[in-house]
Amino acid sequence: MSLRFWAKRLLKLALLGLVGGRAARGVAVLAYHSVDNSGSWLSISPNQLREHLQWLKDHHWQGLTIDQLLARLDGQPGSGREILITFDDGYENFLTNAVPVLKEMGFPATVFVVTDLVGKTSKWYEKERENIKKFVDGMSFPKKDRQVLDRMLEHFSQERLMSWEQLSRLEEFNVDVESHSCSHRFLSKLSAAELADELERSRGELQEKLGHASRTNCFSYVDFSSVVGKAAEAAGFEAGFLASLVTGAKEKNNRFALGRVGINGFYSKFDLRFALSQAAGLHQRIRRLIIR
Ligand SMILES: [Zn+2]
Fold it and tell me: Where are the alpha helices (H) located in the chain, listed in sequence order?
């Protein structure tokens, strides 16, 4: 073996060690969407999910429930290597493709559901198509990624969502069902009355249909403002999640703007390791909240 080979290998190990070390201190939140074999931007295959969970298991990450995460936000110390695994939108494929893998691997999970559309389809991708495109334009996506987005919008506008009956069966698999608002709109664009309705009605519906209120809300499209956070608190939620770490980082000390790492099918288990090191930043946020 050449000196160059070993120098490179040592550098790689040092980098991985650094990443692993940062992650070890953290509470991370992962954001998955659809679990299917379509290869879309929002999808991960059941096999990839199994690979990710196996990696987490091998590296001694413990899955958290929503109650446990809220307890950490309130100051209860954790093991230092904890993860909240979340799935947005409530696709029917969560039940068929993700639940068996989560069960096999022994991880709890959280699903954020769009309460007006339970048992229907993900038609907001069609309805909000122009807003989503404008939003993505603002993020100056590479052209290639925009084409991927077009295909995703096409693919996802008809995806089936779980019914109330299916959602009520999730509890036995240690899955928390939480709010993703009523209709998956851009909340920061709504009037105060519409915003309150989206949040309060969603929370109330979950209480009525599943027998327990949702304690957290997940805001769609990385769309957040302090007004949205305050409205969620007024509606009775105890914390809120964003689909991005970057936006979350701008909202320090705000338990209604907890950043998540979005995971899609392009992530290998090595990318996951990197993502976790970023996600571990949430731990610092939790510490700040405790100290405050
Ligand atoms: Zn969503």
Answer: 3-24, 46-58, 66-73, 92-93, 99-105, 124-127, 129-138, 143-156, 164-168, 192-210, 226-234, 245-250, 269-279, 281-291
Which residue range(s) make up the domain with 226?
27-124+161-291
Question: What is the number of structural domains in the chain?
Answer: 1
DSSP state of 22: H
Mean pLDDT of each 10-residue bin along the chain, 292 residues long: 47 36 54 88 88 88 94 86 94 97 98 97 81 69 66 74 97 97 92 97 97 93 87 96 69 81 71 65 52 40
Task: Give dist(CA 94, CA 92) in Å, integer.
Answer: 5
Domain membership of residue 268 (yes or no) is yes
Q: How far apart are CA 262 and CA 285, in angstroms?
A: 18
Q: Among candidates 291, 198, 258, which has minimal Cα distance to 66? A: 258
Report how far residue 138's alpha carbon sits from residue 151's, in angstroms, rounded to the nearest whole number. Answer: 19
Structural domain contains residue 66: yes
CATH number at residue 49: 3.20.20.370
Ramachandran angles phi, psi of 106, nearest 5°: 75, 35
Tell how far the Cα of 114 is from the centroid of ligand 1, in angstroms.
8
Q: What predicted TM-score, i.e. pTM, was given to this entire model?
A: 0.82
Residue 45 lies in a domain: yes
CA–centroid distance, residue 180 to ligand 1 (Å) = 7
CA of 84 to the centre of ligand 1 (A): 17
C-alpha of residue 131 to centroid of ligand 1, in Å: 14
Residue 133: both structure tokens together: 């495109």
In a domain, 146, yes or no: no
Q: Measure the CA dihedral 139/265/167/208, to 10°.
A: -10
